[in-house]
Specification:
four-stranded antiparallel sheet, 2 domains, 11 helices, Alpha-Beta Plaits
Length: 285
Amino acid sequence: MKFNDITYSIPWNIFLITLGSIIFGIGVKAVVIPNGLITGGFSGASILIYYYTQFLTPGIWYFVLNIPVFILGWMFISRRFLLYSLIGAVVLTLAIDFIRFEIPFKDLMLASLAGGTIIGAGAGIVFRSLGSSGGNDIISVILNQKFGIRIGTYNFAFNFILFAFSFGLLDTDIILYSMAMSYISSQVIEYFITLFNERKMIFIISNNPRKIADEILKKLNRGVTFLKGEGAYTGNKKDIILAVVNNYQIKRIEEVAFTIDPDAFLITENTFNVLGKGFSKRKVY
């Protein structure tokens, strides 16, 4: 079984959702709540309600807030996504309520760094699956699927609004530390989402494009495409080589190109998501 097939299997997705939700719960219960901080998203809203009412538990409030969001997931995404997300929401709710240990910090900034990293890692692992841990994740996926809005970007925007409403309920310093933690979390989420998907797109302009292309096909077993180009000054027409490679193949591409043509011109660009044969499989929720 290929890895791309494994990523669509039920056991693999349940594993990612469970692991990510538990890590997320550790960040909330062992770091955030003991230090009086709040997270972003629905978990942050549930913590804020708990701080204000001292009624029920943050985990139960999180599950209650999820009820209308699951309806949106059913309408706009898929039944499979909803069922996976239900698992995530249940695991996260149990993790928040049943984790009993704390990670001690003397400095709130260090607590913010640790909390943002742990929560971001947990959420990022969940986002690698075909589900979510519920809450704001479902809305994030809907906006990402329908409008191409980056998940981390939306989460930070939502959290900024949430924190704005927190003024008056929490100390200003706590809110600012929480905002810093939210920013760290959003960056870690983006890192985990692009993990293993980042590739390099290479353009090669040379007087020997066919020979270079043949060597890339032979030595790297990587497909290439010829783009038709024309020199603005000389008017000479050329075949420009386009190739998308893994990070570790860049130096080998350079070696092939400059060995054949020392005067070749090579341009490398980052690509954060490459879908297709030989790369990542399109994720359908």
